[in-house]
Protein backbone atom coordinates (compact mmCIF):
# COMPACT_ATOMS: atom_id res chain seq x y z
CA UNK A 1 0.00 0.00 0.00
CA UNK A 2 1.41 3.36 -0.99
CA UNK A 3 1.76 6.05 1.70
CA UNK A 4 -0.92 8.75 1.96
CA UNK A 5 -0.39 11.62 -0.46
CA UNK A 6 0.37 14.25 2.24
CA UNK A 7 3.01 12.00 3.84
CA UNK A 8 4.46 11.16 0.46
CA UNK A 9 4.72 14.82 -0.55
CA UNK A 10 6.22 15.76 2.81
CA UNK A 11 8.92 13.10 2.39
CA UNK A 12 9.58 14.25 -1.16
CA UNK A 13 9.82 17.93 -0.26
CA UNK A 14 12.18 17.12 2.61
CA UNK A 15 14.55 15.16 0.39
CA UNK A 16 14.29 16.90 -2.98
CA UNK A 17 15.44 20.40 -1.94
CA UNK A 18 13.61 22.11 -4.80
CA UNK A 19 14.98 25.44 -5.88
CA UNK A 20 12.75 28.49 -6.25
CA UNK A 21 9.65 26.33 -6.51
CA UNK A 22 10.60 25.15 -10.00
CA UNK A 23 9.31 21.63 -9.69
CA UNK A 24 9.18 20.51 -13.30
CA UNK A 25 11.26 21.85 -16.16
CA UNK A 26 11.38 19.29 -18.93
CA UNK A 27 8.76 16.62 -18.16
CA UNK A 28 5.05 16.56 -18.90
CA UNK A 29 2.33 17.86 -16.59
CA UNK A 30 1.15 14.33 -15.82
CA UNK A 31 4.71 13.23 -15.02
CA UNK A 32 5.08 16.30 -12.83
CA UNK A 33 2.09 15.26 -10.73
CA UNK A 34 3.62 11.83 -10.21
CA UNK A 35 7.11 13.14 -9.47
CA UNK A 36 6.90 12.87 -5.64
CA UNK A 37 6.14 9.14 -5.63
CA UNK A 38 8.47 8.53 -8.57
CA UNK A 39 11.28 10.35 -6.77
CA UNK A 40 10.94 8.08 -3.74
CA UNK A 41 10.72 4.94 -5.89
CA UNK A 42 13.86 5.94 -7.77
CA UNK A 43 15.70 6.60 -4.49
CA UNK A 44 14.59 3.25 -3.05
CA UNK A 45 15.15 1.04 -6.11
CA UNK A 46 18.44 2.61 -7.14
CA UNK A 47 19.67 2.54 -3.54
CA UNK A 48 18.88 -1.17 -3.25
CA UNK A 49 20.71 -1.82 -6.51
CA UNK A 50 23.74 0.17 -5.39
CA UNK A 51 23.75 -1.64 -2.04
CA UNK A 52 23.71 -4.99 -3.83
CA UNK A 53 26.57 -3.80 -6.04
CA UNK A 54 28.70 -3.17 -2.97
CA UNK A 55 27.77 -6.43 -1.27
CA UNK A 56 28.77 -8.41 -4.39
CA UNK A 57 31.68 -6.23 -5.54
CA UNK A 58 33.84 -8.26 -7.99
CA UNK A 59 37.02 -6.30 -7.21
CA UNK A 60 36.80 -7.06 -3.50
CA UNK A 61 34.12 -9.45 -2.29
CA UNK A 62 34.04 -11.94 -5.18
CA UNK A 63 37.83 -11.95 -5.52
CA UNK A 64 38.15 -12.85 -1.86
CA UNK A 65 35.39 -15.46 -2.10
CA UNK A 66 36.95 -17.24 -5.06
CA UNK A 67 40.33 -17.22 -3.32
CA UNK A 68 38.69 -18.66 -0.20
CA UNK A 69 37.08 -21.42 -2.28
CA UNK A 70 40.38 -22.33 -3.92
CA UNK A 71 39.52 -21.23 -7.46
CA UNK A 72 42.49 -20.93 -9.86
CA UNK A 73 44.08 -17.51 -10.22
CA UNK A 74 43.29 -17.52 -13.94
CA UNK A 75 39.57 -17.63 -13.18
CA UNK A 76 39.84 -14.97 -10.49
CA UNK A 77 41.52 -12.72 -13.04
CA UNK A 78 38.41 -12.88 -15.22
CA UNK A 79 36.08 -11.34 -12.61
CA UNK A 80 36.58 -7.66 -13.39
CA UNK A 81 36.79 -8.04 -17.21
CA UNK A 82 33.54 -10.05 -17.27
CA UNK A 83 31.81 -7.59 -14.96
CA UNK A 84 32.88 -4.45 -16.83
CA UNK A 85 32.78 -5.69 -20.41
CA UNK A 86 29.55 -7.64 -19.90
CA UNK A 87 27.83 -4.60 -18.42
CA UNK A 88 28.96 -2.09 -21.05
CA UNK A 89 29.86 -3.63 -24.41
CA UNK A 90 26.40 -5.07 -25.31
CA UNK A 91 24.60 -1.77 -24.78
CA UNK A 92 24.99 -0.39 -28.28
CA UNK A 93 23.21 -3.47 -29.58
CA UNK A 94 20.43 -3.61 -26.98
CA UNK A 95 19.51 0.08 -27.06
CA UNK A 96 17.33 -0.22 -30.17
CA UNK A 97 15.27 -3.06 -28.69
CA UNK A 98 14.81 -1.14 -25.46
CA UNK A 99 13.88 1.90 -27.53
CA UNK A 100 11.03 -0.16 -29.03
CA UNK A 101 9.44 -0.50 -25.58
CA UNK A 102 6.78 2.09 -24.79
CA UNK A 103 7.58 1.85 -21.06
CA UNK A 104 11.24 1.16 -20.38
CA UNK A 105 10.76 0.69 -16.65
CA UNK A 106 10.01 -2.95 -17.42
CA UNK A 107 13.47 -3.37 -18.92
CA UNK A 108 15.11 -2.06 -15.74
CA UNK A 109 12.84 -4.07 -13.47
CA UNK A 110 13.47 -7.29 -15.37
CA UNK A 111 17.20 -6.60 -15.45
CA UNK A 112 17.20 -6.08 -11.67
CA UNK A 113 15.60 -9.49 -11.18
CA UNK A 114 18.20 -10.94 -13.56
CA UNK A 115 20.98 -9.49 -11.42
CA UNK A 116 19.37 -11.03 -8.36
CA UNK A 117 19.33 -14.41 -10.09
CA UNK A 118 23.00 -14.01 -11.00
CA UNK A 119 23.87 -13.32 -7.34
CA UNK A 120 21.83 -16.35 -6.29
CA UNK A 121 23.80 -18.55 -8.71
CA UNK A 122 27.07 -17.30 -7.21
CA UNK A 123 25.78 -18.00 -3.70
CA UNK A 124 24.76 -21.52 -4.70
CA UNK A 125 28.23 -22.12 -6.12
CA UNK A 126 29.87 -20.95 -2.90
CA UNK A 127 27.65 -23.22 -0.80
CA UNK A 128 28.01 -26.39 -2.86
CA UNK A 129 31.28 -26.29 -4.82
CA UNK A 130 34.97 -25.55 -4.45
CA UNK A 131 38.04 -25.10 -6.61
CA UNK A 132 37.71 -24.63 -10.37
CA UNK A 133 34.08 -25.81 -10.41
CA UNK A 134 33.08 -23.07 -7.97
CA UNK A 135 35.05 -20.53 -9.99
CA UNK A 136 33.35 -21.43 -13.27
CA UNK A 137 29.87 -21.31 -11.72
CA UNK A 138 30.56 -17.98 -10.03
CA UNK A 139 31.75 -16.55 -13.34
CA UNK A 140 28.57 -17.87 -14.98
CA UNK A 141 26.44 -16.07 -12.39
CA UNK A 142 28.53 -12.93 -12.83
CA UNK A 143 28.03 -13.10 -16.60
CA UNK A 144 24.24 -13.15 -16.15
CA UNK A 145 24.53 -10.31 -13.65
CA UNK A 146 26.68 -8.21 -15.99
CA UNK A 147 24.45 -8.73 -19.03
CA UNK A 148 21.38 -7.84 -16.97
CA UNK A 149 23.14 -4.73 -15.73
CA UNK A 150 23.85 -3.67 -19.31
CA UNK A 151 20.09 -3.61 -19.98
CA UNK A 152 19.41 -1.74 -16.74
CA UNK A 153 22.01 0.90 -17.54
CA UNK A 154 20.52 1.72 -20.93
CA UNK A 155 16.96 1.81 -19.61
CA UNK A 156 17.60 3.76 -16.42
CA UNK A 157 18.72 7.11 -17.76
CA UNK A 158 15.82 7.19 -20.20
CA UNK A 159 13.27 6.42 -17.46
CA UNK A 160 14.96 8.94 -15.17
CA UNK A 161 14.65 11.62 -17.83
CA UNK A 162 10.94 10.87 -18.36
CA UNK A 163 9.91 10.69 -14.71
CA UNK A 164 12.20 13.13 -12.83
CA UNK A 165 12.63 16.77 -13.82
CA UNK A 166 15.95 18.42 -14.63
CA UNK A 167 17.32 19.85 -11.41
CA UNK A 168 16.24 16.82 -9.34
CA UNK A 169 18.05 14.01 -11.17
CA UNK A 170 21.40 14.43 -9.52
CA UNK A 171 19.67 14.80 -6.17
CA UNK A 172 17.73 11.54 -6.42
CA UNK A 173 20.76 9.54 -7.59
CA UNK A 174 22.89 11.19 -4.90
CA UNK A 175 20.31 10.30 -2.25
CA UNK A 176 20.34 6.68 -3.39
CA UNK A 177 24.12 6.66 -3.26
CA UNK A 178 24.14 8.09 0.25
CA UNK A 179 21.82 5.59 1.91
CA UNK A 180 23.28 2.64 0.03
CA UNK A 181 26.76 3.72 1.17
CA UNK A 182 25.49 3.46 4.76
CA UNK A 183 24.57 -0.18 4.07
CA UNK A 184 28.04 -0.90 2.70
CA UNK A 185 29.57 0.89 5.67
CA UNK A 186 27.71 -1.47 8.00
CA UNK A 187 28.95 -4.40 5.89
CA UNK A 188 32.55 -3.19 6.14
CA UNK A 189 32.33 -2.71 9.89
CA UNK A 190 30.84 -6.17 10.25
CA UNK A 191 33.78 -7.63 8.32
CA UNK A 192 36.23 -5.85 10.59
CA UNK A 193 34.53 -6.51 13.94
CA UNK A 194 33.72 -10.17 13.33
CA UNK A 195 36.85 -10.93 11.35
CA UNK A 196 36.81 -14.62 12.28
CA UNK A 197 33.41 -15.01 10.56
CA UNK A 198 34.30 -13.37 7.24
CA UNK A 199 33.26 -16.37 5.13
CA UNK A 200 29.79 -16.49 6.68
CA UNK A 201 29.44 -12.71 6.37
CA UNK A 202 30.37 -12.76 2.68
CA UNK A 203 27.84 -15.53 1.97
CA UNK A 204 25.17 -13.58 3.82
CA UNK A 205 26.10 -10.50 1.79
CA UNK A 206 25.53 -12.42 -1.45
CA UNK A 207 22.11 -13.54 -0.21
CA UNK A 208 21.19 -9.97 0.69
CA UNK A 209 22.41 -8.77 -2.72
CA UNK A 210 20.16 -11.28 -4.49
CA UNK A 211 17.18 -10.20 -2.40
CA UNK A 212 18.02 -6.50 -2.81
CA UNK A 213 18.10 -6.61 -6.59
CA UNK A 214 14.82 -8.54 -6.73
CA UNK A 215 13.08 -6.06 -4.43
CA UNK A 216 14.50 -3.16 -6.46
CA UNK A 217 12.87 -4.58 -9.58
CA UNK A 218 9.50 -4.84 -7.83
CA UNK A 219 9.69 -1.24 -6.58
CA UNK A 220 10.80 0.14 -9.95
CA UNK A 221 7.96 -1.64 -11.74
CA UNK A 222 5.57 0.58 -9.75
CA UNK A 223 6.85 3.81 -11.32
CA UNK A 224 4.28 5.98 -13.06
CA UNK A 225 5.96 6.17 -16.48
CA UNK A 226 4.19 7.57 -19.53
CA UNK A 227 4.37 5.68 -22.77
CA UNK A 228 7.09 7.06 -25.00
CA UNK A 229 8.04 7.04 -28.66
CA UNK A 230 8.88 3.59 -30.04
CA UNK A 231 10.56 4.60 -33.27
CA UNK A 232 14.12 3.52 -33.88
CA UNK A 233 13.31 -0.01 -32.80
CA UNK A 234 15.56 -1.72 -35.35
CA UNK A 235 17.88 -4.29 -33.83
CA UNK A 236 21.36 -5.68 -34.20
CA UNK A 237 24.46 -4.55 -36.04
CA UNK A 238 22.63 -2.28 -38.49
CA UNK A 239 21.17 -0.13 -35.75
CA UNK A 240 24.42 -0.17 -33.77
CA UNK A 241 26.54 1.03 -36.67
CA UNK A 242 23.93 3.61 -37.65
CA UNK A 243 23.94 5.00 -34.12
CA UNK A 244 27.66 5.74 -34.34
CA UNK A 245 26.85 8.63 -36.66
CA UNK A 246 25.96 10.66 -33.58
CA UNK A 247 29.66 10.82 -32.73
CA UNK A 248 30.15 12.85 -35.93
CA UNK A 249 26.94 14.83 -35.65
CA UNK A 250 27.40 15.84 -32.00
CA UNK A 251 30.98 16.86 -31.08
CA UNK A 252 29.95 17.29 -27.43
CA UNK A 253 28.98 13.61 -27.25
CA UNK A 254 32.40 12.58 -28.54
CA UNK A 255 34.13 14.96 -26.12
CA UNK A 256 32.02 13.72 -23.21
CA UNK A 257 32.92 10.10 -23.98
CA UNK A 258 36.61 10.99 -24.16
CA UNK A 259 36.42 12.79 -20.80
CA UNK A 260 34.54 9.89 -19.23
CA UNK A 261 37.05 7.43 -20.65
CA UNK A 262 39.99 9.28 -19.14
CA UNK A 263 38.19 9.58 -15.81
CA UNK A 264 37.83 5.78 -15.60
CA UNK A 265 41.26 6.03 -14.00
CA UNK A 266 39.50 6.79 -10.70
CA UNK A 267 37.85 3.35 -10.91
CA UNK A 268 40.96 1.49 -12.07
CA UNK A 269 43.38 2.90 -9.50
CA UNK A 270 42.16 1.52 -6.11
CA UNK A 271 43.68 -1.99 -6.44
CA UNK A 272 47.09 -0.42 -6.95
CA UNK A 273 46.71 1.60 -3.77
CA UNK A 274 46.01 -1.66 -1.97
CA UNK A 275 49.14 -3.23 -3.49
CA UNK A 276 51.29 -0.36 -2.25
CA UNK A 277 49.66 -0.50 1.18
CA UNK A 278 49.96 -4.26 1.71
CA UNK A 279 53.29 -5.08 0.09
CA UNK A 280 54.39 -8.68 -0.25
CA UNK A 281 53.19 -9.63 3.21
CA UNK A 282 49.80 -7.95 3.14
CA UNK A 283 46.79 -9.91 4.32
CA UNK A 284 44.01 -10.15 1.74
CA UNK A 285 41.35 -10.53 4.43
CA UNK A 286 42.33 -7.28 6.13
CA UNK A 287 42.51 -5.51 2.77
CA UNK A 288 38.93 -6.52 2.01
CA UNK A 289 37.49 -4.80 5.07
CA UNK A 290 39.67 -1.71 4.73
CA UNK A 291 38.80 -1.06 1.08
CA UNK A 292 35.08 -1.68 1.59
CA UNK A 293 35.14 0.67 4.58
CA UNK A 294 36.95 3.44 2.67
CA UNK A 295 34.57 3.15 -0.26
CA UNK A 296 31.49 3.17 1.98
CA UNK A 297 32.61 6.21 3.95
CA UNK A 298 33.42 8.10 0.76
CA UNK A 299 30.00 7.34 -0.70
CA UNK A 300 28.19 8.15 2.52
CA UNK A 301 29.84 11.54 2.94
CA UNK A 302 29.94 12.66 -0.68
CA UNK A 303 27.17 11.18 -2.84
CA UNK A 304 24.36 13.54 -1.82
CA UNK A 305 26.67 16.58 -2.03
CA UNK A 306 27.96 15.54 -5.45
CA UNK A 307 24.34 15.09 -6.58
CA UNK A 308 23.45 18.64 -5.51
CA UNK A 309 26.55 20.04 -7.22
CA UNK A 310 25.85 18.04 -10.38
CA UNK A 311 22.40 19.59 -10.64
CA UNK A 312 24.09 23.00 -10.65
CA UNK A 313 26.90 22.10 -13.05
CA UNK A 314 27.75 18.50 -13.89
CA UNK A 315 30.53 19.82 -16.14
CA UNK A 316 32.28 21.46 -13.18
CA UNK A 317 31.83 18.27 -11.16
CA UNK A 318 33.67 16.32 -13.86
CA UNK A 319 36.48 18.87 -13.89
CA UNK A 320 36.79 18.93 -10.11
CA UNK A 321 36.71 15.18 -9.68
CA UNK A 322 39.40 14.70 -12.29
CA UNK A 323 41.65 17.08 -10.41
CA UNK A 324 40.75 15.50 -7.06
CA UNK A 325 41.41 12.00 -8.36
CA UNK A 326 44.81 13.01 -9.71
CA UNK A 327 45.66 14.70 -6.40
CA UNK A 328 44.71 11.57 -4.43
CA UNK A 329 46.91 9.40 -6.62
CA UNK A 330 49.77 11.88 -6.30
CA UNK A 331 49.31 11.77 -2.53
CA UNK A 332 49.54 7.99 -2.67
CA UNK A 333 52.83 8.18 -4.55
CA UNK A 334 54.14 10.73 -2.06
CA UNK A 335 53.25 8.46 0.88
CA UNK A 336 54.99 5.53 -0.83
CA UNK A 337 58.11 7.57 -1.59
CA UNK A 338 58.25 8.71 2.04
CA UNK A 339 58.03 5.12 3.29
CA UNK A 340 54.59 5.67 4.84
CA UNK A 341 52.74 3.08 2.74
CA UNK A 342 52.75 0.37 5.46
CA UNK A 343 51.26 2.68 8.11
CA UNK A 344 47.69 2.30 9.28
CA UNK A 345 46.58 5.78 8.19
CA UNK A 346 48.43 6.85 5.02
CA UNK A 347 46.98 4.65 2.28
CA UNK A 348 43.46 4.55 3.75
CA UNK A 349 43.49 8.35 3.71
CA UNK A 350 44.61 8.49 0.08
CA UNK A 351 42.08 5.80 -0.87
CA UNK A 352 39.31 7.70 0.88
CA UNK A 353 40.07 10.81 -1.20
CA UNK A 354 40.19 8.81 -4.41
CA UNK A 355 36.83 7.15 -3.72
CA UNK A 356 35.24 10.54 -3.04
CA UNK A 357 36.51 11.66 -6.45
CA UNK A 358 35.16 8.49 -8.06
CA UNK A 359 31.72 9.06 -6.54
CA UNK A 360 31.73 12.52 -8.13
CA UNK A 361 32.76 11.12 -11.50
CA UNK A 362 29.88 8.64 -11.44
CA UNK A 363 27.27 11.24 -10.53
CA UNK A 364 28.68 13.95 -12.78
CA UNK A 365 28.83 11.76 -15.89
CA UNK A 366 25.33 10.36 -15.31
CA UNK A 367 23.74 13.77 -14.81
CA UNK A 368 25.58 15.36 -17.74
CA UNK A 369 24.54 12.62 -20.15
CA UNK A 370 20.87 12.85 -19.17
CA UNK A 371 20.84 16.67 -19.37
CA UNK A 372 22.75 17.00 -22.64
CA UNK A 373 20.00 15.58 -24.85
CA UNK A 374 16.23 15.18 -25.13
CA UNK A 375 14.20 11.99 -24.69
CA UNK A 376 14.42 11.13 -28.40
CA UNK A 377 18.16 10.42 -28.20
CA UNK A 378 18.78 9.75 -24.52
CA UNK A 379 18.74 5.95 -24.65
CA UNK A 380 20.88 5.87 -27.79
CA UNK A 381 23.44 8.31 -26.35
CA UNK A 382 23.61 6.22 -23.18
CA UNK A 383 24.23 3.06 -25.19
CA UNK A 384 26.90 4.66 -27.37
CA UNK A 385 28.70 6.09 -24.36
CA UNK A 386 28.59 2.93 -22.28
CA UNK A 387 29.65 0.65 -25.12
CA UNK A 388 32.66 2.78 -26.03
CA UNK A 389 33.60 3.10 -22.36
CA UNK A 390 33.52 -0.70 -22.20
CA UNK A 391 36.10 -0.79 -24.99
CA UNK A 392 38.20 1.86 -23.23
CA UNK A 393 38.06 -0.11 -19.97
CA UNK A 394 39.32 -3.21 -21.72
CA UNK A 395 42.12 -1.19 -23.30
CA UNK A 396 42.90 0.46 -19.96
CA UNK A 397 43.11 -2.94 -18.32
CA UNK A 398 45.71 -4.03 -20.87
CA UNK A 399 47.53 -0.73 -20.47
CA UNK A 400 47.50 -1.14 -16.70
CA UNK A 401 48.84 -4.69 -16.99
CA UNK A 402 51.72 -3.51 -19.17
CA UNK A 403 52.43 -0.58 -16.86
CA UNK A 404 52.31 -2.90 -13.86
CA UNK A 405 55.54 -4.47 -15.11
CA UNK A 406 57.22 -1.32 -13.85
CA UNK A 407 55.42 -1.42 -10.50
CA UNK A 408 52.19 -0.19 -8.91
CA UNK A 409 53.67 3.30 -8.51
CA UNK A 410 54.24 3.69 -12.25
CA UNK A 411 50.71 2.50 -12.94
CA UNK A 412 49.27 5.04 -10.52
CA UNK A 413 51.31 7.82 -12.10
CA UNK A 414 49.82 6.95 -15.49
CA UNK A 415 46.31 6.89 -14.03
CA UNK A 416 46.92 10.29 -12.41
CA UNK A 417 47.84 11.68 -15.84
CA UNK A 418 44.64 10.18 -17.26
CA UNK A 419 42.59 11.90 -14.54
CA UNK A 420 44.25 15.24 -15.30
CA UNK A 421 43.53 14.69 -18.98
CA UNK A 422 39.90 13.94 -18.16
CA UNK A 423 39.59 17.21 -16.26
CA UNK A 424 41.10 19.11 -19.19
CA UNK A 425 38.76 17.50 -21.73
CA UNK A 426 35.74 18.13 -19.46
CA UNK A 427 36.71 21.80 -19.29
CA UNK A 428 35.83 22.05 -22.99
CA UNK A 429 32.33 20.62 -22.55
CA UNK A 430 29.28 22.81 -22.95
CA UNK A 431 27.87 24.16 -19.69
CA UNK A 432 24.40 22.66 -19.08
CA UNK A 433 23.70 23.58 -15.47
CA UNK A 434 22.42 26.71 -13.78
CA UNK A 435 25.80 28.10 -12.90
Structure description:
The protein is mainly α. It has one domain: Growth Hormone, Chain: A (Up-down Bundle). The protein has helices at 5-16, 29-33, 35-55, 58-68, 73-76, 79-88, 91-99, 105-128, 131-163, 169-193, 198-221, 237-243, 245-249, 251-263, 265-268, 270-278, 284-337, 346-371, 378-403, 408-427. Helix 9 crosses helix 18 (346-371). The longest helix is centred in the C-terminal third of the chain and has 54 residues, at 284-337. The chain is globular and about 60 Å long. Mean pLDDT is 81; it is low at 280-285.
**CATH architecture designation:** Up-down Bundle
Separation of termini?
40 Å
Class derived from helix and strand content: mainly alpha
Number of helices: 20
Total count of domains = 1
CATH topology: Growth Hormone, Chain: A
Low-confidence stretches: 280-285
CATH homologous superfamily name?
Answer: MFS general substrate transporter like domains
Cα-atom radius of gyration: 21 Å
Let me know the largest β-sheet. Answer: none
Q: What's this, in brief?
A:
This protein is an all-alpha fold. It is built from 20 helices and no strands. Helix content is 79%, strand content 0%.
Amino acid sequence: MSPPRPALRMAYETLAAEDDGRMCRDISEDACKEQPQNFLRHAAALGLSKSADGLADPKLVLSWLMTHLGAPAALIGLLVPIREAGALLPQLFTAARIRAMAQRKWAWAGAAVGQGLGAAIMLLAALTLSGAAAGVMILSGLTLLALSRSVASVAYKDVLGKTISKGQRGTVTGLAGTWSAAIILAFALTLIIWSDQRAVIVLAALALAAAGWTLAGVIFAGLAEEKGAQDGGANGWTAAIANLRYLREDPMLARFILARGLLTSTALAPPYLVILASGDGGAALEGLGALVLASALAGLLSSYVWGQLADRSSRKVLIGTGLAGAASMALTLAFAAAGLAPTLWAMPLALFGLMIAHQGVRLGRSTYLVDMTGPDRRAVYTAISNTLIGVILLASGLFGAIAALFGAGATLALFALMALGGAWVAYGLKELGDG
